[in-house]
């Protein structure tokens, strides 16, 4: 994990220091739940205290660099940086009323405090997130200071930039951090509690029970279990390692090649972030950016998510048939009766969906009640009962997991603030619209490339914030509905986790499978072909996202999309009943793409092509079987 996931590279604390760190992290989680539910004080106080605690915990948890670490040791330089950095944010907390009322009149010492606070945030982000997002932030800040801002005096530009980035809601404390402190943190804590109920093992057993006995069963188990576990964890790499430690060895033992086994787990785990109802942290930001209830987001995300996982499922099935792989022996599969007895473990998730989708209460209240419900349901399982110690562990895990997301959101705020102040977003929009002309496909392709490139090593939340501020407005200007534009950049920000050359989830899967990392990444990209196609579908036909449509229209779109995904998956796999020759593969691919493109004529031609190819392959397969 430490090789592929920076969050796993932590300080070594033992004994009393470890207990102190545990208490700090747990207290932070409790504080966040209390603030989101009951606090009525100034928003600036909530946001600055939140980030001050993030800086404090970030330095306590993450060392300056990887490598050998001394037990219970923290360098003096780190302690000084931690105190100054957290102190800068807490200065704002305790002086919030004065700072809000002083307008634009800032003293130089306040500007220096702002610089220290931003520097501390940058350092924590470097430690727990990585360099790529900081390179992006540095580019926009340098652009603002050298070209974007109009003040002729350099120190005047610095003063203006720091004032806006640190002391207003246009920078660090803009929408990303606001949403993180208000919604995301509570859902992260809920995920930590849910994991301690044993739901991950339940999901794996459920997937085994549903698909384990069929051809290539372990790969299908990986797809189903990773989809279910991934929506809770919200981390592509973390989910790959967690479920992959079970499913990847099973796939290899069944007969799948190591590169394919690692790719299946990486592709499925990455897709967990687009799987309702939780969908990782970025979906909460989307609800705020678009200005709709979160229940709208999860409702519209269902069909694209199903198509994504269906594409992977079809590919692993065809691979299993091509290799003549069998399923898991019946005696090794979990008993359905035993699983039914534990169906109550799903109650917190089910109730969360009901509370949120029915608008019975706020998201944060629903998540808080779901946390309590997860504790209650665990009492019925003696093997996974949540004890006071597990409650402390869950609160600690929730606090620790929040550090990375909050740091990334803070830096994303710096990026979006710099873009807003300089008017760069509008210049970028005009430039790309000018290049694209009236051709939407060109704008979509350019946006996709931007999302994938900026997503390399950048967390999904931060990547989505950047794209929502820069490229989503381009698609909206080109006539794409706002919801579809934001879903487009959201999907392609996620896919960077499996797209070479920086495919973190694929590399994590390859580490477990002991396979070639780059081949694993290419296999994962091939398996996840749906995620490269579906976003174009809902931009050209927003009905897929339930925008201005009817039930009959959605059913028609779903049917043609499923057949289209099948055609593409079969073409990429090169097998359906029998090995395909190049002509049949090309016809399958063409038919799949035509079915994905909206339109009666293209649908009919696509159906005819896929049906003809199926018939040819079926006859060929029967002849081979008879021989």
From TrEMBL:
Q: Which regions span the lipid bilayer?
A: 20-41, 47-64, 76-94, 106-122, 129-149, 173-194, 260-285, 297-318, 339-357, 363-380, 401-425, 431-454, 550-570, 604-621
What residue stretches are annotated with the TRAP C4-dicarboxylate transport system permease DctM subunit domain?
117-548
The protein's superkingdom reads Bacteria
What UniProt keywords are attached to this protein's entry? Membrane, Transmembrane, Transmembrane helix
A Pfam family assignment:
DctM
Record InterPro entries: DctM, TRAP_DctM-Dct_fused
For this entry, the protein name equals TRAP transporter permease
Organism equals Bilifractor porci
Q: What is the lineage of its organism?
A: Bacteria, Bacillati, Bacillota, Clostridia, Lachnospirales
